[in-house]
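We were asked to recover a plausible sequence for a given structure. The inputs and outputs are reproduced exactly as logged, with field labels preserved.

PROBLEM: sequence recovery
POSITIONS: 49
GIVEN STRUCTURE:
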């Protein structure tokens, strides 16, 4: 969880107008998109095999 908190702090440092809740939401949504992209890529790879 330390890496998550670090990413939130970095985002807040870049964009001080954001609230901590907004930054957490942004990071969480980004993580979900990355997970979906990884799983889609793995599914395509497995389909080729």
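RECOVERED SEQUENCE:
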């Amino acid at each position: 969880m330390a890496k998550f908190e670090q990413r939130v702090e970095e985002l807040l440092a870049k964009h001080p107008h954001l609230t901590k809740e907004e930054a957490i939401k942004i990071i969480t949504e980004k993580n979900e998109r990355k997970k979906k992209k990884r799983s889609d890529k793995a599914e395509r790879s497995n389909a080729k095999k």
